[in-house]
TrEMBL record:
The gene is ssuA_1. The lineage of its organism: Bacteria, Bacillati, Bacillota, Clostridia, Koleobacterales. Transmembrane segments: none annotated. This is Aliphatic sulfonates-binding protein.
Length: 335
């Protein structure tokens, strides 16, 4: 009888430990699918590079791991960075340059994962412009904002081809991608547009529109077009929420890579594009949905040299979280 009583009490304790401690302190994988748990505010922007985030939203991948997501939309990485700085966001996705500018100014966030390698190009319809050397005063170049990845890529090309990384800065016009694409196709007010898919592909499908600079040419190889950021406060105070965020993005990217046809069907109405055309764009050469991080320190070194930031990270741990450091590793031997 005594033995049965002990077994009964043990069963009660196990039941309490599994069902009576929901919420903070519970690991993400203990939360049932669809059950809301950890609040997180995530920024989204425009463009095909955000397809995994849109799929995560549609398929409920964040909720699967216990996140209760509040979505906020921004027109540029700079605007999302300001929201991170003011405490209005927990997580955002942006190019490495706007992140580094924020880090340099003390914005309390680090890289939590890479997010998409994507074509990005400078396009023009003007037959008199066939390289950046033809961009003279009076011409206007649209890009999302000063300090954006497009701006720093243009600066890299300007340093190499024009001898001055800021040679084209006076020609810049800040426009969100949809507005820039609309102005380009209407041939109104701007003469060139540094943009990403699907706007890039839509512009190049117009007669007479040509690429005059590719992002990989400017950078000298592949780079992460975007990285995912999480604030220090959220990372430190919500380790389960942070882990759930990483899990949600990982699952979204894995799913989209295995199901691009279905992803195109889901996202076609949101981009107002035919399903077949969107599938073609999602499988365009150079598109790579991946959480690997490329180019972080290379961007930092260029931006420090040219004065866009005032300091360099002493090591990656200053700008990236432990899961990113684990993926990158540290090769001994000075290389």
């Amino acid at each position: 009888m005594k033995k049965l009583l002990i077994l009964f009490l043990l069963a009660v304790l196990v039941t309490i430990s599994l069902t009576g401690c929901k919420g903070k302190g519970e690991t993400a994988d203990q939360i049932s699918p669809g059950e809301k748990g950890y609040k997180i505010r995530i920024a989204e922007q425009f463009g095909l590079v955000y397809a995994p985030l849109m799929i995560a939203r549609e398929k409920g991948f964040f909720e699967k791991y216990g996140l209760d997501v509040e979505w906020k939309r921004f027109g540029s990485g700079g605007a999302a960075r300001e929201a991170l700085a003011s405490g209005d966001l927990d997580a955002a996705f942006m190019g490495i340059p706007p992140f580094l500018i924020g880090w340099d100014k003390g914005v309390p966030a680090k890289v939590a994962l890479g997010y998409v390698v994507s074509p990005v190009s400078l396009v023009t319809y003007n037959p008199e412009i066939r390289s950046i050397k033809d961009l003279k005063p009076g011409y206007k170049i649209a890009l999302p904002s000063p300090g954006s990845v497009q701006h720093i890529l243009l600066s890299m090309a300007a340093e190499r081809e024009l001898g001055d990384p800021r040679a084209l800065d006076d020609l810049l016009v800040a426009l969100p991608h949809p507005d820039g694409a609309a102005a380009m196709i209407a041939k109104k007010d701007i003469h060139a547009h540094f943009t990403t898919p699907p706007y890039l592909f839509e512009e190049l499908s117009q007669p007479g529109y040509v690429e005059i600079l590719k992002g990989t040419e400017a950078f000298g190889g592949e780079f992460s077009f975007n990285v995912g950021l999480v604030t220090l406060k959220y990372h430190d105070e919500n380790p389960q929420g942070y882990a759930a965020f990483i899990q949600g993005v990982n699952e979204a990217i894995a799913w989209i890579n295995l199901n691009k046809r279905e992803a195109a069907k889901i996202l076609s109405p949101k981009f107002n594009l035919p399903e077949d055309k969107l599938y073609k764009y999602m499988t365009w050469e150079g598109m790579n949905y991946t959480t690997a991080t490329y180019g972080l320190l290379e961007f930092a070194e260029f931006m420090k040299k040219t004065g866009y930031i005032g300091r360099l990270p002493k090591d990656l741990s200053e700008v990236a979280y432990e899961n990113v450091l684990a993926v990158i590793g540290k090769r001994e031997g000075g290389q």
